[in-house]
Amino acid sequence: MQQIQSVPVQIFDLAVRLFHWFQVVLLAGLWYSAEQEWYGLHQLLAYTLASLLGARLIWGLIGSETARFRHFVPAPRQLRQYLTNKTPVAGHNPVSALMILALFLLVALQFASGLMTTDEVMTEGPLYSLVPDWLSSLAGSWHELGFNLMLGLVVVHVLAALWHQLSGDKVIGAMWHGRKPLPADTIAPRLLNSVKYFLLVVILFCGLMGWQGSAVWPQFLADLQTIQAM
């Protein structure tokens, strides 16, 4: 039986890869800052992640081929075909694509719910006083439940990635350096310069800080003083 020759193909741009790893770091930071009640730091990290996610959603419309939703979001038929015959793909496979969409949705809901909650001591989300009490209460309950759900999905995602990596589908390496072994006749996806993505991140972050920076920075500086005093 003739073995199919594989060659390394660049499938992910820098924007997709850095968004992925920054998201991991920021989610860890958001969890820890909430546990320590460092709410200024927590909000700053939340606005950073929101900027990265907002830019990623835009990049999913105008970015590199493998970053675009139309490239990796599967139709039901494509999902069934992949589950029947798990062949390597140039980009996110249909199952991981569903996980990515679920995580995008949960991160967005976490950010939106955080804007409507309060710690009932020092910190109120900027929308807390603008929404009815029932919605603020619902948002507060979801903010805790949703984060636990998101952590559960992250664990499943990591285990699945490890399983694929050990099975020969080098997905972790691909998300690190962007290359993945694929059949020699695979057409390399069209990747764009990621500078536009990072400009989008900066624009969104500056917009959010222009909106809420005067409330966030004093709390963040207070948190830094607490951390330095430890």
UniProtKB/TrEMBL annotation:
Record key words, sorted: Cell membrane, Membrane, Transmembrane, Transmembrane helix
* Cellular localization per UniProt: Cell membrane
**Domain Cytochrome b561 bacterial/Ni-hydrogenase span(s) in chain numbering:** 12-178
Q: Which Gene3D superfamilies match?
A: Transmembrane di-heme cytochromes, Chain C
Q: Which residues cross the membrane?
A: 12-32, 44-62, 95-116, 145-163, 197-217
Oxidoreductase in keyword set: no
The yes or no answer to whether the keyword Transferase is present is no
Question: Membrane topology type, per the record?
Answer: Multi-pass membrane protein
In the UniProt record, the signal sequence range is none
Pfam families associated with the record: Ni_hydr_CYTB
Q: What is this protein called?
A: Cytochrome b/b6 domain-containing protein
Species, as recorded: Rheinheimera tilapiae
